[in-house]
Amino acid sequence: MRPPLGPYDALRRIAFLLERSRAGTYRVKAFRTAAATTLATDPGELRSRADSGTLTDLPGIGPATESVIRQCLAGENPSYLTSLEDRATQPLVAGGLEVRAALRGDLHSHSDWSDGGSSIQEMVVTAMDLGHEYLVLTDHSPRLQIANGLSSERLSKQLRVVEEINSAVGAFCLLKGIEVDILDDGSLDQSLQMLSQLDLRVASVHSKLAMSQAPMTRRLIAAVENPQMNVLGHCTGRLVEGERGTRGQSSFDAASVFAACAAHDVAVEINARPERCDPPDDLMVQARDAGCLFSIDSDAHAPGQLDFLIYGCARAERIGVPVETIVNTWPKDQLLAWANPA
Description:
Elements: H1 7-20, H2 25-40, H3 43-52, H4 63-73, H5 79-88, H6 97-102, E1 105-109, H7 120-129, E2 134-137, H8 152-166, E3 173-181, H9 192-195, E4 200-204, H10 213-224, E5 231-232, H11 254-263, E6 267-271, H12 281-289, E7 294-297, H13 309-319, H14 332-339
Parallel strand pairs: 1-2, 2-3, 3-4, 4-5, 5-6, 6-7
Helix pairs in contact: 1-2, 1-4, 1-5, 10-11
């Protein structure tokens, strides 16, 4: 049995396990809020409040989180955490373990700078906990206002934050990236000057997903031909389940798009989010047979979702995607040389 965690670490671990199991956002938020309060409170005050029964007077501490804090302060493993850990011993999905073991990092993740739920620092610490060697931070570009997309000015500030984090995390590397919108004409929603400062660029369609086949095909190919593009994100835009409901896939000439990806060394993303499962199996087969590169990405908007990679790994294994064609199995230096050819 692992030594008992302190209150902050226990609350943070519970939030991670809840996110990993796709629990309701409100439950996760309760534990993350309580963790933040615990971190900001002097340990002596926590103990005195536990003794006097006033822990719930602190902001964001309710009965469930109070119980966790009390058990931690008593040197016990919180019962709620233990039950979650027991359930977490079961794999999220069957298969994919060999592919997952080969992955060195994740090329698609979001923070609270755009529409993610947690800080960059929390995403980094969780990626390190999961054994990643690198994580690409890919917050949204400015046109996606609903997701608080980053202007050039905000992206510039974020790049400085990334540099500060990298100076403090040792061998792990947070890579500078973006999920840049593919606009109607196939251009990318960020200036060339800003895109050229990044380590890696995921480009995705988020608008006019029901565009007819011919213009959508031209749109995607124009984006793929852009020398600043590295990864074609969730290429069909479909949703197959989840809180946002379902959405059909975009229509495009997959043979032409994947031929362009292969010709321009652009990786096709295997988006591991269970509600996306994108591209579908038949398009994954087409991309594989076209000689495309792939990336298996979590598209995480919260720390626990970084563990969703196994969903994409299981699909890649089942479809027979060669591991050596998955770019995030490559060492960081090889990945960066591919993403930024001389």
